[in-house]
Amino acid sequence: MPYLPFPAPSSSSSPPRLLFWTLASFLLLLLWDFSGLDLAMAHWFGSAGGFALESHWLWRDLLHDDIRLWPWVIELGLLTAIFLPIGTLRQLPMARRAQLALTTLAALLAVSTLKLHSHTSCPWDLQEFGGAATYVSHWAWGVRDGGTGGCFPAGHASAGFAFIGGFFAFRHALPKTAWRWFAGAMLAGLVFGLAQQIRGAHYMSHTLWTAWLCWTVAAGIDAAVSRLMARSRTHATAPVSRLSALTPLTPAE
């Protein structure tokens, strides 16, 4: 049997299944946007006087300010691990380690770029919470709400969701580890998103869209890397297959 330089992809998370969940979650997000629940949830924590817990040490200091640099520290570690892997990362081929590091970076940059060009303001900017802005859906592209903008999607939640790329990198060889990465990234992203929701810095839809964007970026890069690795396997095994088809020469009698 010819030597395969890369592990074969697992069938447990096939491309059709991943595509189904990507599209299904997209439709659920659209339903959430049309439900009007964003404002309703904002009113759970805010009033005409603003958001009482905006400056609370737990939500602002511990779960926001104190962890802002950690995603970039971890990202630096993942970039280093491409060439100097440690722990479970040693069980991934270099291509998958590079996929993990670049997927995380791409997700963080994608969310940051969208925020930079967003006209959507945060809940604490709305008139009903003591600000100057009026509520405008983030789907109303180009329409300004009178606030500072730059609030969609949820950048802080991406500090957790961006690492969902670990699910895709590990799923081909270590499914259990992949699901641990998925659970950890989702839990961290939701906690960070909830912290900002309580402070009035984001609507729940901002957090959910960030999760979907990070998932979609990771899925797209995984598909591209898998295709490149499959092509490399084909090139690596083709000479072996041709040689094995040749009839051995026998010495002349």
Task: Map the helices and strands.
Layout lengths: L14 H21 L1 H9 E2 L2 E2 L5 H6 L7 H12 L12 H23 L41 H4 L3 H6 L4 H25 L4 H41 L9
Antiparallel strand pairs: 1-2
How does this model look, in words?
The chain has about 250 residues and is mainly α. The protein has helices spanning about 15-35, 35-45, 55-60, 70-80, 95-115, 160, 165-170, 175-200, 205-245, and strands spanning about 45, 50. A two-stranded antiparallel ribbon has the order 1-2. Strand 1 (about 45) and strand 2 (about 50) form a beta hairpin.
What tags apply to this protein structure?
253 residues, 58% helix, 9 helices, disordered N terminus, elongated, two-stranded antiparallel ribbon, mainly alpha
Provide the succession of SSEs.
Answer: HHEEHHHHHHH
Compute the number of helices: 9
Distance between the termini: 32 Å
Which residues sit in consecutive blocks of at least 5 with pLDDT less than 50? Answer: 1-12
Helix content: 55-70%
Give Rg in angstroms.
Answer: 23 Å
Gist?
By secondary structure, this protein is mainly α. It is built from nine helices and two strands, in the order ααββααααααα. β1 and β2 (50-51) form a beta hairpin.
